[in-house]
Amino acid sequence: MSDTIAAIATAFGEGAVALLRLSGPRAQEIADGLWVGKHPVPSLPSRQATLGALRENEEKLDDVLLTVFRAPNSYTGEDVVEIACHGGILVTRTILGALLRAGARAAEPGEFTRRAYRHGKLDLTQAEAVMDVVRAQTSLALRAAREQLGGALGARIRGARAALLETQAQIEAALDFPEEDIAPETGAILRKRVAGVLADAHALLATARQGRVLREGLRTVIFGEPNVGKSSLLNRLLGFERAIVSARPGTTRDVIEETIVLQGIPVRLLDTAGLRESDDEIEQAGMERTRRAVDDADLVLHVVDASRPAPDFIPESRTILVLNKCDLGEHPSWIGRGDVRISCSTGGGLETLGAAIADRALHGAAQEDWAISINARHQACLERATAALQSALDGLDTQRSLDLVAEDLRAGMEAIGDIVGRPDTENLLGLIFGQFCIGK
User: Fold this and answer.
1) Is 431 contained in some domain?
2) Is cis: bond before 45, omega within 30 of 0?
3) Rounded to the nearest 10 degrees, what angle do helices 402-420 and 152-176 cross at?
């Protein structure tokens, strides 16, 4: 934390402009050692881009725009200098090398955001949201990341923790002064408060699935017998020829995966080998992969040939039964069966299928309900918290020893506190910020 760090903040490659960042106690001093302008860097106004140049050993490095953000009013809470230069690969590397030779240290992945967290500019949920914003591939994922970056999740967590802290204080007071028993009406208030936090924790846990879908995509497997149009359906949904289509059974041997966006939801489409009796060793391996893909799927598009007689099977709740080849005429055995009817040849019914996939992903909820979507780390913390709080609630109901109730509340508060971050979570911080890109 006492070092001054530097990094290229823009993506690797050529572009019109690139940005380099310095952050730390010597940021202004190091930048000033290379700066050529009308005024030295320490006297430049904050948050105002100034035109000048950078030189090292009398050699001009580039014409730049330099902006100073003075502590604590900066992203990291430290002195920050941002340098906008021409966007060539060589020029940015040359400037970064000069900054490092002048006394800066190369930043580690996520170190700028980690310093922002350390200086109280962000809580841990907001820090994680920074990377979610960078990685968002859909409008819905970006909206959820922005809500979390704005502090929506952190505010709910801090509110829950404050309610538990107040409850804990009252119970601790009763333990310190045993002659002052908790009055029945006070006990009812304490129970209501714990029950309220528990209910809120369960509500947040219910968003875990949608959070995973937004970040990883809805894993959707296209499944069925050979020659029912699985690969044709993949190509139609993608809008280009991704999979080889042939009348010969067994053409698809491996799982083919591509991603599309439906109503703001990323959908990972997996085209699989058709299931049939076969002595071909490679085809058997492909069918085994199909079975594993179906087992791991969030949603299964079970494609059938509507022009053939309906086989006997019972679709699962996570399955959409897709009747394909409806342009060839529908066999009477399909009357009253099937969720969606399409034709990959003509494109008919594909919009209806897309809407059905999105509806299954949303589970009938409005997109606005996805504003807060927890990740796997939040889920693990909340599961620990709910177990502890349920135990505390049971203790209050059965008038168990207040010592035990207090211990359960402490465990619940610690688990909830881990979501927004606590000082003793160094290993956790290393795991989180190690996933960031350098310069962020």
Assistant:
1) no
2) no
3) 160
Q: Following CA atoms 3, 423, 145, 158 in sequence, which dihedral angle do they give, to the nearest 10 degrees?
A: -140
Query: Residues 237, 350: contact at Cβ < 8 Å?
Result: yes
pLDDT digits (tens, 9 = 90+) for 113-151: 999 999 999 999 999 999 899 888 888 888 888 999 999
220/318 Cα distance (integer angstroms): 10
Quick one: what percent of the chain has pLDDT higher than 70? 87
Q: What residue numbers bound the domain in which 264 lies? A: 217-368
pTM of the model: 0.76
Q: How far apart are CA 77 and CA 63, in angstroms?
A: 27
CA 297 to chain centre: 19
Same domain, 244 and 312: yes
Q: Are strands 35-36 and 50-56 parallel, antiparallel or unpaired?
A: antiparallel
Q: Which amino acid is at 362?
A: L
List strands edge to edge, sheet with 218-224.
256-262, 265-271, 218-224, 299-305, 319-324, 340-341
* Interval 347-358: pLDDT, tens: 899 999 988 888
Are the C-beta atoms of 436 and 109 separated by less than 8 Å?
A: yes
Highest-confidence range of 219-233, 383-397, 421-435, by mean pLDDT? 383-397
Q: Is residue 436 part of a domain?
A: no
> Which H helix or E strand runs over 56?
strand 50-56
- How far is it, in rounded angstroms, from Cα 395 to Cα 144? 37
Report the run of H or E that residue 392 belongs to, with start and end. Answer: helix 376-397
Give the amino acid at 389: L
d(CA 135, CA 153) in angstroms, rounded, equals 19
Contact (CB, 8 A) for 112 and 7: yes
Please, are residues 388 and 415 in contact by the beta-carbon 8 Å criterion? Answer: yes
The angle at the Cα of 59, spanning 54 to 62, to the nearest 5 degrees, equals 35
Instruction: Supply the CATH number for residue 45's domain.
Output: 3.30.1360.120
Which residues neighbour 197 within 8 Å (Cβ) at sequence distance 6 or greater? 160, 163, 164, 389, 412
Closest listed residue to residue 97, CA positions, set 133, 66, 64, 56: 56
